[in-house]
Design goal:
Layout lengths: L13 H7 L3 E5 L5 E4 L1 H7 L11 E7 L4 E9 L7
Antiparallel strand pairs: 1-2, 1-4, 3-4
């Protein structure tokens, strides 16, 4: 049995995306590579991102494509996995 989705409104933080079960896109500011992922996987490794606003540059990430420490922008896709 599926859990009822109770989130209403706009996703403004990663916690909002987790509550709504939305996917997020992480984009490297240097090489513009985009990666879609579950927001809880980001929060599991970086708990301080819980209150970070979406659509703003966040420093301190390592990009596997351009092999350097970069800033990323995290945006909400407003889509759910498998649907």
């Amino acid at each position: 049995m599926k859990r009822a989705r109770k989130f209403q409104g706009e996703a403004k933080t990663l916690v909002d995306c987790c509550d709504a079960e939305y996917l997020v896109v992480v984009r490297c500011e240097r090489c513009d590579v985009r990666r879609q992922m579950h927001p809880y996987s980001l929060l599991a490794t970086r708990a301080q991102l819980a209150s970070a606003a979406l659509d703003t540059p966040l420093p301190g990430f390592f990009c596997k494509t351009c092999q350097s420490k970069v800033s990323v922008t995290i945006t909400c896709t407003y889509s759910r996995p498998g649907g």
